[in-house]
């Protein structure tokens, strides 16, 4: 069985994330969405909330599993026999950082990283930008799934 992981904080998941996840789900038999737990960083949504949102918006993909992890991603991969990490690249600046991570990951454990160029529609999109625009009342309805929009509006008291 061909397995891959799409890691991230997903705070919140955006249409850009979903684009990469859906494309990975067509290439692999099983795709894990690994939600990073960083206790030093306070997110807008708790990890359990993010897991729930991601599970709901990826439910149409029968081969996507959603789990939280802390520690090294390569350990998550080893524990689940996952040989590949799928990462979306928006710009050259993403590549510089992600290349270093990919080289470290293959050196640590032999886990490969596959870079998928983002759909140009989402080339500027990040969770941080979505949160900032939403905080100031901007329209983000075209950037996140409706379920996530509702959750953001409730969290930011914009409904």
UniProtKB/TrEMBL annotation:
Bilayer-crossing residues are: none
What is the protein's given name? Phosphopantetheine adenylyltransferase
* Transition state stabilizer (site feature) positions: 17
User: What processes in GO biological process is this protein linked to?
Assistant: coenzyme A biosynthetic process
Q: MF terms per GO, please? A: ATP binding; pantetheine-phosphate adenylyltransferase activity
Subunit architecture: Homohexamer.
> Which residues are listed for ATP binding in this entry?
9-10, 17, 88-90, 98, 122-128
InterPro entries in UniProt:
Cyt_trans-like, PPAT, Rossmann-like_a/b/a_fold
Which pathway?
A: Cofactor biosynthesis; coenzyme A biosynthesis; CoA from (R)-pantothenate: step 4/5
GO cellular component terms attached to this protein's record: cytoplasm
Q: What is the enzyme's main class?
A: transferase
Enumerate the spans annotated as Cytidyltransferase-like domain: 5-132
A Pfam family this chain is assigned to: CTP_transf_like
Upper taxonomic lineage: Bacteria, Bacillati, Actinomycetota, Actinomycetes, Kitasatosporales
Q: Mind telling me which Gene3D superfamilies this protein's record contains?
A: HUPs
- The answer, when asked if Repeat is one of the entry's keywords, is no
Write down the required cofactor(s).
Mg(2+)
Q: Which residues bind substrate?
A: 9, 41, 73, 87
Q: Which UniProt keywords apply?
A: ATP-binding, Coenzyme A biosynthesis, Cytoplasm, Magnesium, Nucleotide-binding, Nucleotidyltransferase, Transferase
Q: What is its biological role? A: Reversibly transfers an adenylyl group from ATP to 4'-phosphopantetheine, yielding dephospho-CoA (dPCoA) and pyrophosphate.
Principal cellular location given in the protein's record: cytoplasm
Q: What reaction does this catalyse?
A: (R)-4'-phosphopantetheine + ATP + H(+) = 3'-dephospho-CoA + diphosphate
The subcellular localization recorded is: Cytoplasm
Tell me which EC number(s) this protein carries. 2.7.7.3
Family membership, please give it.
Belongs to the bacterial CoaD family.
